[in-house]
Structures are given as structure tokens and as C-alpha cells.
Design brief:
Blueprint: H1 2-20, H2 37-46, E1 53-55, E2 71-73, E3 75-77, H3 83-91, H4 103-106, E4 107-108, E5 111-112, H5 123-133, E6 137-139
Parallel strand pairs: 1-2, 3-6
Antiparallel strand pairs: 4-5
Length: 150
């Protein structure tokens, strides 16, 4: 009886542990529901992201009394803008400040000048916005010139 209970306990433990094993796609970290790119563009306008951002190849209506947008999103990049990077940039803009711009333009005391929308943006709006932004980036392989040594 003790052997039977021990064997049963071992089987139950293995079954429990196999259910906890990471799945093959767990390297992604997380995945929000699918979004809609057209609704994402609407969110971009509704949240007035175009007050500070332009998107290469897109035209947005001007915002009265606002300075022209100064940070371009999209275009040619040397690395993929992942789903997680875009979500993080939206919900935690101080995590990584935009490179290629004067520091005082994008931040004050290393805190992003970007408005934090977390209390105002729904999860659906976030996923739609990411769905709209991600295809705006074109990954290009940098051209390197290798030195030939004699």
C-alpha cells in the first residue's frame, strides 16, 4: 500500500510539474490580444501622439498652437522594434529615451517628456496602437565596409 501511494504521489507530482513547464513560445515573455492597425491610427490621433511624433510617409492634421512634431517614428532601422519594446515605450516612456535627439528635447532630468497615458488608454487602444506602429518600421541590414589587411 505504501509503494502504491508513493507511486501515485510521484505520478501526480510529475503531472503537476509538466503542466508548469514553459512552453516553446514563452521566450516572447507576454502577448497582448491582437489589435487593429486602423483603430491604432485613430488612437494615435485621439491621444494626440502626433503632437510630438511624426511617422514616415504619414500625414496628420496640425494641432493648434502646438510646436511641430520632433520625434519621428517608423522608417528604416537596424533592428526589429519588437512588440514588447513598443508596449514598454508607450506605458513606460522613461525606460529608454529616444536616441538621436538632444537630451533636453526628449527628457528633463532623465525623465521622458512623453505624457504617460496609463490611466487614460485602454488595453485595446494600446494593442491597436502597437499593431499600427510595428509595421511602420523597416529593418535594413547596415552596410559595412571591411578593411582588407595584406
Amino acid at each position: 500500500m505504501i509503494k502504491f501511494c508513493s507511486a501515485l504521489l510521484a505520478i501526480a507530482l510529475l503531472a503537476t510539474m509538466s503542466g508548469c513547464a514553459p512552453k516553446a513560445d514563452s521566450a516572447v515573455g507576454f502577448k497582448l490580444p491582437d489589435g487593429d492597425a486602423i483603430s491604432g491610427r485613430d488612437t494615435f490621433l485621439y491621444m494626440q501622439c502626433h503632437q510630438c511624433h511624426t511617422i514616415q510617409g504619414e500625414s496628420f492634421p496640425a494641432i493648434p498652437l502646438a510646436d511641430p512634431p520632433y520625434i519621428e517614428l517608423g522608417g528604416k532601422v537596424s533592428s526589429v522594434k519588437t512588440y514588447g519594446e513598443l508596449v514598454t515605450a508607450i506605458i513606460n516612456p522613461s525606460h529608454k529615451l529616444a536616441s538621436g535627439y538632444a537630451k533636453d528635447v526628449v527628457s528633463e532630468d532623465d525623465v521622458s517628456n512623453m505624457y504617460v497615458y496609463n490611466r487614460y488608454m485602454t488595453v485595446q487602444e494600446l494593442t491597436d496602437l502597437v499593431m499600427y506602429l510595428q509595421p511602420q518600421y523597416e529593418v535594413v541590414i547596415p552596410k559595412y565596409q571591411y578593411r582588407m589587411y595584406p
